[in-house]
Design goal:
Layout: E1 2-7, E2 12-19, E3 24-31, H1 37-42, E4 50-53, E5 57-58, E6 77-79, E7 82-83, H2 96-102, E8 106-109, H3 113-123, E9 126-132, H4 137-146, H5 153-157, E10 163-165, E11 171-176, H6 181-189, E12 193-198, H7 203-207, E13 213-216, H8 227-236, E14 242-245, H9 247-255, E15 260-276, E16 282-293, E17 303-309, E18 315-320, E19 325-328, H10 344-364
Parallel strand pairs: 3-4, 4-6, 5-7, 6-8, 11-12, 11-13, 13-14, 14-19
Antiparallel strand pairs: 1-2, 1-9, 2-8, 3-9, 10-12, 15-16, 15-17, 17-18, 18-19
Helix pairs in contact: 8-9
The chain binds glutamine.
Length: 365
């Protein structure tokens, strides 16, 4: 079925729908990875967004059992140049279009994804709608201008009750703001005793779980919409080792008095180079974020910049000068993407061990 994509600034494209035939409205963002569409679709950080992929052929290995990053897709729509109706892979369970249909996610193919991406790079990400070709542009633009994305999106994606993935190693409490399963897999691989808790769990409730460390997960939306969580991180800081990933990094930054801002078109891809300030070493990272921590605002805080983006010099990692807490804007769990930064999970474990040893020495002295 022919469908129209209309952007907030009146630009429009006509394409063919696949997946659900419904309309879809949300922020239109682009991802430059060549593979990993299943992980992207099921990453809760995309909740409510329309996801445009720059790689020209999508869906050729279908949907499998192992590449889920949560139980269902969260992106509202997937926009591609071409999709593959007959996928081929030994793990394939279903095609991309039947997966999208089953979960009511809109697919749009046949549009000039290159032109659209360049437009977003020039003008910045904006709201967009996939709708009937019969609707007038001005009417859709009006609807887009009055559309307000859900500010409580973290509440929508977080677990409603705590659950455990038992292990014989360090006890890690994960605050779930829209956690990707890849984070859980990395902790379990390192034998951590993991308890995943809802986004609004208080510091007191977390202490009752006897954590050796707290991991602040990735998640959707503007970090400034999560002020309750920022308050909790403030309370936890200095009492327990903290590791933040993506939204978790932004929440740690806000809790330490820094500011965040919206990037013009975000970082979403599987090959973003990040430089470690101390060593100059560059790692290729997986990224998916629209906001970033403001460099200047860090000057009056106890955070130091540990990593920066090679492409635009924005902040990619911070560490606390006094307390055991650090965070990164990118995704060490990859899923999808390169595993160059995977060692950060070991650094978190080392930090928990070190903090425990210091506490014992302190008690002895
Ligand atoms: N993947 C994430 O955690 C994204 C964080 C935040 N929602 C942003 O877009 O910047």
């Amino acid at each position: 079925m022919l469908k129209k994509l209309v952007l907030e600034d009146g630009t429009f494209f006509v394409g063919n729908s696949f997946g659900s035939d419904n309309d879809a409205i949300g922020e239109l963002v682009f991802h430059t990875g060549m593979t990993g569409y299943q992980e992207m679709l099921t990453d809760p950080s995309y909740c409510g967004q329309l996801l445009l992929l720059t790689y020209p052929l999508i869906g050729n290995y279908g949907i499998n059992r192992s590449d889920f990053e949560s139980m269902k897709p969260f992106a509202r729509a997937l926009l591609v140049r071409e999709w593959e109706p007959e996928p081929s892979h030994y793990e394939k369970e279903q095609s991309l279009s039947s997966f999208l249909k089953e979960h009511n996610v809109v697919g749009l193919a046949g549009i000039d994804t290159r032109q659209l991406t360049r437009h977003l790079r020039d003008k910045g990400v904006m709201k967009a709608m996939i709708t009937s070709i019969d609707r007038s542009i001005s009417e859709v633009v009006e609807e887009l201008l009055s559309f307000r994305p859900n500010k409580k999106v973290v509440e929508e994606v977080s677990t409603s009750r705590a659950y455990q993935a038992p292990g014989k190693g360090k006890r890690v409490v994960v605050m779930d703001f829209g956690m990707k399963h890849g984070i859980l897999r990395e902790l379990v691989k390192r034998e951590c005793d993991v308890v995943v808790v809802p986004h609004n769990t208080t510091a007191q409730e977390i202490y009752r779980l006897n954590p050796d460390g707290v991991l602040l997960s990735n998640g959707p939306g503007d970090p400034k919409d999560c002020l309750e969580a920022v308050g909790t991180v403030k309370e936890l800081l200095g009492n327990v080792p903290i590791f933040g990933i993506c939204l978790g990094h932004q929440l740690l930054s806000l809790a330490c008095g820094a500011d965040t801002f919206k990037l013009p078109f975000g970082h979403r891809g599987a090959n973003h180079p990040v430089r470690e300030i101390k060593t100059g070493k560059v790692t290729i990272t997986s990224q998916n974020h629209g906001y970033a921590c403001d460099k200047n605002s860090l000057l009056n805080t106890d955070l130091e910049i540990t990593h920066e983006a090679v492409n635009d010099q924005t902040v990619e990692g911070v560490a606390h000068r006094k307390y055991p807490a650090f965070s990164v804007q990118y995704h060490p769990e990859a899923s999808p993407g390169p595993l160059d930064a995977n060692d950060l999970f070991q650094q978190f474990i080392d930090l928990m061990v070190h903090t425990e040893m210091e506490a014992k020495n302190y008690v002895k002295a």
